[in-house]
Amino acid sequence: MLISKRLFTFLLLFLRLSILAHAQQQRGFVSIDCGAPENFEYTDGNIKYSSDGTYINTGVNRNISSEYNYPKNPTLPQPLSDLRSFPEGKRNCYSIKTPIRNSLHLIRASFLYGNYDGENKLPEFDLYVDVNFWSSVTFRNASVQLLMEIISLKVSEEINVCLVNKGLGIPFISALELRPIIYGPVYATKSSASLLLFKRWDIASVNGSGRYEDDVYDRIWSPYSSSSWEILETSSAINDDKNGYKAPFEVIRTAARPKNESAALEFSWESNDPNFKFYVYLYFAEVEKLQKKQRRKFNISWNGSPLFGPFSPLYLQATTVSNSKSLVGNKHQISISRTADSTLPPILNAVEIYVVRELDAIPTFEQDVDAIMNIKVTYGIQRNWVGDPCEPKDYIWDGLGCNYSNSPPLIISLNLSSSSLSGAIAPAISNLLLLKSLDLSNNSLTGPIPQFMEDFKSLKVLNLKGNHLSGFVPDNLLERSRAGLVSLSVDDQNICGSSTCKKKNIAVPIAVSISSVLVLLIALALVRKLRRKKASDKEIEKANKGGGTIASKKWQYSYEEILEITKNFEVVIGKGGFGIVYRGELKDRNQVAVKMLSPSSSQGPRQFQTEAELLMTVHHRNLVSFIGYCDDDNKMALIYEYMANGNLKNYLSDKNSNILTWQKRLEIAIDAGQGLEYLHHGCKPPIIHRDVKTANILLNENLEAKIADFGLSKVFKNDNTNSESEVMGTTGYLDPLYYKSRKLNEKSDIYSFGIVILELITGQPAVIKGEESEHITAWVTDELKRGDFSRIVDPRLEGKFSASSMEKALGIAVACCASPSTHRPSLNFVVQELKHCLEVEFPSHCDRFEMVPRQVYKEMYSSSEPYSYDTDSFTSPFAG
Ligand SMILES: *[C@@H]1O[C@H](CO)[C@@H](O)[C@H](O)[C@H]1NC(C)=O
Ligand SMILES: *[C@@H]1O[C@H](CO)[C@@H](O)[C@H](O)[C@H]1NC(C)=O
Ligand SMILES: *[C@@H]1O[C@H](CO)[C@@H](O)[C@H](O)[C@H]1NC(C)=O
Ligand SMILES: *[C@@H]1O[C@H](CO)[C@@H](O)[C@H](O)[C@H]1NC(C)=O
Ligand SMILES: *[C@@H]1O[C@H](CO)[C@@H](O)[C@H](O)[C@H]1NC(C)=O
Ligand SMILES: *[C@@H]1O[C@H](CO)[C@@H](O)[C@H](O)[C@H]1NC(C)=O
Ligand SMILES: *[C@@H]1O[C@H](CO)[C@@H](O)[C@H](O)[C@H]1NC(C)=O
Ligand SMILES: *[C@@H]1O[C@H](CO)[C@@H](O)[C@H](O)[C@H]1NC(C)=O
């Protein structure tokens, strides 16, 4: 299906149609019967429960005692008849893959003590959701069924529900349920906050009701009535609230009205904590067919101050009303009172009351989490390694140390001594860049001491004693140990010094005498001096070469200077494909970023210098500018301007609490597009970036975007002759057509840029990790087909964008990813289109960008067919 020129019309239609499609029933429900026998599944009511073995591997299964159990207690829900208790460990966590990302989830934990341990002693413990405190769990008696519910936005891959032993009895849990709330926007508060259920009342009902499938979200409604109320009801169908609150029919069909027709309808509650912030959701639907002159109209107030109104519920139409500012205090009273011109008393059909719980603890730095998880799996480490490694602080993983002055927290020490580790030293350790202390002593580790050990710039303690490692400590580390910067403990055979030590290394055992240290230091100093001389020779040589502009500006730096600029590599600000990036400061106090290039990724030094100097001549407002480079005795570095807000990937991630508005996102896309456009059309010969991705789009203090790492792929081409056959780029951004054909052109960058725009729209990464990783294009296609245009848009935007601007941007992204690549638009076109998105959205904010007048622009592009849209061609790199 090939539709050109009519892309947007088509897309619009496509989206509208797909919104109508129905979501699957029970989609994304996770229902866990904790403590059930392994691989056990059954249906209770309409809900399919399964045992918990796949979500946790600690704790023991127990049954509640017979006096509380079936058959003595015939109404007992089956999931509550057994439980999992946690006699071991301070913190135990269930880890559940988020069923539907970027969705609100209702998380419900159920507890019934039922004297399962025969001790008849009620325990008390704490419940956490991810790194945040959820609630304390306390029981009134052994037969009370305690339900805890929280509604929380999940953007990350996993939900961890953790039970924490406070020393007041053994924690346990009976059931755990997850219900994605897929018909939003509902229960909206601040994005970092979650809502703790306080009360959920089916007003004027006797038995209470709800649960799936009466309630699509499987909420449980308790009956609530008052002697001063009368019941009204209907059996006619009632239309759902348009915002998706979807109260079940049983709940909404009954309403209460005050018996005294002139009195207000009132209810109240109290809070133990005067700081609790409450949100109340009031459900209304007129259930009486009103006569011509009848009118029901009322105002809603809280503790005497107006909340909402005047309001008249519509006949057989549900409406949900909520407070926009939270309600704070000990005592709360809601009054619904008729207005003067109302002929009928007020009504109320249902109520939900929630307490705001800020979930603002920040989980550990993602890269560190990935690394430590990898280490955990590699060595099969048991311990208490569940949930987040560093948070909450009191439950940090055994053997880890974290630095909390950064946000997110970082892992700075790892102690796995005497842990029966075997095999090689895990390469994942190299990703814990900021390790200060690493203790792997007294294990059965084999294999060489990896070279990466010298990359830990902050390392103070390294203990590898008591293993069967081969090879030697890297030179650099040995030097640092000799200079007293690192406390190094290794087995004798790993210290260089025997005849096997043929490296150019300074061949002295660590246990050197004072005098030899002195000799060594002198030797080192000499080497340094020689190196410096070499560097300055180079500079003279260059100046002599006569390249006027080159000589007039200092571009080349020695390794010594790099050490000075970065204060001995003090602060790591990133890690890219070609090496680690450090923060630095030049003599003029200007901040810079210094990328140390790993020698393995480079080509000959001569070539490096040529390319580096070429890069220094590329200037554009939206390209990160190069300030200099270092090419000193195999130590190569690039120095470029410091970008205060880091890269777009991190800025966009859910770990960042700053939320980019749609306007800002468009501006960033335009900035980045302009940078790329310059590389493609402003440079001779054109520069193809080859690695366009959010991690390579940097943001300055004003959140203006600049492209980084351009030209590097060229610098690092190993061999000019076969460059066509060597695929470069990053998974998720790699043009599937380039991958297949190995023919590189600008269109590959455009594909990657399309992925970047999709990320800006959705807030999702290019590869969405879940049970199975999914490419963003596949996910977007799926979601669109499934009918949720609103759900592909980043929920953190809270609906603050115009649909036409969003649809247009989506259209651009889709076009960029089209296949064949000739159908992809050029960057000029993409940039102009993006500017028009911004113009649609915020006409007054376009001043920052130069606009091609609408008329000219039309003429420029209407003659040819700039791009087309082929649904089948919107392929993901994983598709095969
Ligand atoms: C709990 O009871 C069920 C059924 O009576 C039984 O199959 C199961 O083994 C019991 N579990 C434990 C841990 O005692
Ligand atoms: C346990 O507490 C509930 C709720 O307070 C109460 O209804 C029930 O009677 C109590 N049961 C016993 C055995 O005390
Ligand atoms: C409430 O439940 C009882 C017992 O299950 C039943 O007899 C009664 O009809 C129910 N009442 C309503 C209004 O559904
Ligand atoms: C009904 O309510 C009104 C207003 O609150 C009050 O003045 C009146 O006394 C009430 N009537 C009865 C019978 O309670
Ligand atoms: C109802 O609310 C409106 C608007 O806040 C106010 O003007 C009116 O006086 C209120 N009526 C009553 C009876 O409280
Ligand atoms: C934690 O990090 C901060 C900032 O990077 C640093 O100043 C501090 O010394 C670190 N603390 C420890 C214990 O490493
Ligand atoms: C690692 O832990 C062991 C015992 O748990 C302890 O003896 C050792 O000192 C620790 N190592 C470091 C570097 O702190
Ligand atoms: C070495 O580890 C073993 C267990 O793996 C332990 O029994 C022993 O005490 C440890 N030795 C030292 C010196 O820590």
Structural classification: alpha+beta
- Number of DSSP strands? 46
Proportion in β-strands: 25-35%
Shape: globular
Percent helix: 10-25%
The count of domains is 5
In CATH's first tier, which class of the largest domain applies?
A: Mainly Alpha
Sheet with most strands: 13 strands, mixed
Q: Supply the number of helical segments.
A: 18
Overall radius of gyration: 32 Å
Bound molecules: 2-acetamido-2-deoxy-beta-D-glucopyranose
Plain-language structure description:
The protein is globular. The two termini are 20 Å apart. It folds into five domains: 20-182, Jelly Rolls (Sandwich); 197-358, Jelly Rolls (Sandwich); 366-500, Ribonuclease Inhibitor (Leucine-rich repeat, LRR (right-handed beta-alpha superhelix)), CATH 3.80.10.10; 536-642, Phosphorylase Kinase, domain 1, CATH 3.30.200.20; 646-873, Orthogonal Bundle (Transferase(Phosphotransferase), domain 1). Residues 1-25, 502-552, 715-725 and 851-880 have low confidence and may be disordered. The chain is an alpha+beta fold and 880 residues long. Bound molecules: 2-acetamido-2-deoxy-beta-D-glucopyranose (8 copies). The site of one 2-acetamido-2-deoxy-beta-D-glucopyranose (NAG) has 4 residues, from loops. Keywords: ATP-binding, Kinase, Leucine-rich repeat, Membrane, Nucleotide-binding, Phosphoprotein, Receptor, Repeat, Serine/threonine-protein kinase, Signal, Transferase, Transmembrane, Transmembrane helix. InterPro entries: Kinase-like_dom_sf, Leu-rich_rpt, LRR_dom_sf, Malectin-like_Carb-bd_dom, Prot_kinase_dom, Protein_kinase_ATP_BS, Ser-Thr/Tyr_kinase_cat_dom, Ser/Thr_kinase_AS.
